[in-house]
Amino acid sequence: MVASKKPTEVRIAGGKLPPIPLPTNCPGCGVGLDHEELRRHTYVCECGHHFRLGGDAWIALIADRGSWKERYGDVRSHDLLNWKVPKPYQETLEQLRDEGLNEAVRTGTCTLGGRAVWLAVFDFRFVGGTLSIVAGERLARGMEQAAASGLPYVLVSASGGARMQEGVLALMQMAKVNAAVGRLDAARVPFFSVLTDPTFGGTAASLALLADINIAEPGAAIGFTGPRVIKQATYADLPAGFQSADFQLARGQVDMVVARPELRRLLAHLLEIYP
Ligand SMILES: [Zn+2]
């Protein structure tokens, strides 16, 4: 006789999402938005439009309530190249910090459905979620800790690519984080990547598409260079839906497209089935 297996209870409710700036009407369907209602639905409109979330909202959505412990938040970016265009880089950094944003990547530990994980989230509001020296350092350090301790690694991306204000030093982060991904793999530690709108450039070309399972949000634009630049360079007519999540799914670049209200449940399930 086979004993009935009671499904493992998964706490699905993360913390309450913070308010985010929203338009009056949904850009997907044009309907007037009830901001509180939308917040309860993880900022996904009934028509399926997924509004962009900042790093704090992603942490609240994914981490079990009260479990988030930020790590390496005191590792800060500086203007090493004396970058002045379009405006002084140091000024940009200080202005964003005054607005309460820390960096384009925040990383730490939390539990998800009761299981301890490392979590890293990009924040598009900080210089377009660009991969900087500090972002790369936080990502790589977290991965090394995850590999050493055997904790799964969950990544949420929203990024324009490598940060031009840090030049080749930012590009080097692609190699650095990829080496850290290799350490996760060598340690047999699961790595799950969630690609949100937009994930481009050096971020898509490095860690965001190198996970054991790459999960895209519906409607997310994912690619290396944007369609406008590709069109200018190739004079080609690009296919409908070029670089959308579904387009990338059909071509095997991502493994699944999952609506945001289902994401926590999916990640909790993946954490259970991966050894
Ligand atoms: Zn809508």
Task: Walk me through the structure.
The protein has 275 residues and is an alpha/beta fold. It folds into 2 domains: 18-51, no CATH class; 52-273, 2-enoyl-CoA Hydratase, Chain A, domain 1. The chain is built from 9 helices and 7 strands. It has helices at residues 35-40, 55-62, 89-98, 133-149, 167-186, 201-204, 227-234, 245-250, 260-273; strands spanning 69-71, 105-112, 115-122, 153-159, 191-199, 213-216, 256-257. A 7-stranded mixed β-sheet has the order 1-2-3-4-5-6-7, sandwiched between helices. α4 runs parallel beside α5 (167-186). The chain is globular, with a radius of gyration of 19 Å. The two termini are 26 Å apart. Mean pLDDT is 93; it is low at 1-12. The structure holds zinc ion. Zinc ion binds next to loops.
Keywords:
single chain; 275 residues; alpha/beta; 2-enoyl-CoA Hydratase, Chain A, domain 1; seven-stranded mixed β-sheet; 9 helices; 34% helix; 15% strand; globular; disordered N terminus; binds zinc ion
What would a concise description of this structure say?
This protein is an alpha/beta fold and 275 residues long.
